[in-house]
Amino acid sequence: MYLTVKETAEYLSMPESYIESMIVQNKIRTVYDGEQYLIFKEQFNTHLEQMEKYKKQLADYYSEPIPEDIDVKDED
Fold it and tell me: GO: which molecular function terms (predicted)?
């Protein structure tokens, strides 16, 4: 399924100007149909899955309690 720049911006929750700048930098693959750029929606699935996985790993890391240090000596 192909999306317009506006639809892509809504799908990714990003401003249209950012999507356009990514197109100019060739970071997003597009097809130009003579009137507008069309973006293949499925190219973002892997990226979004990786971002969700990274967010989960980060949340797990921050929720892990700090272990007590074995080498701590109580010297008064």
Answer: DNA binding
Q: Which residues of 44-63 are buried (b: 16+ CB within 10 A; e: fewer)?
A: beeeeeeeeeeeeeeeeeee
Tokens of 48: 């979004």
Beta bridge partners of residue 11, listed in sequence order: none
Which residue is associated with the tokens 């949340």? 59
**CA dihedral of 13, 18, 23, 26, whole degrees rounded to 10:** -110
Say if CB 16 and CB 5 are below 8 A apart.
Answer: yes
H helical segments located in 1-76: 5-12, 16-24, 45-63
pTM strictly above 0.70: no
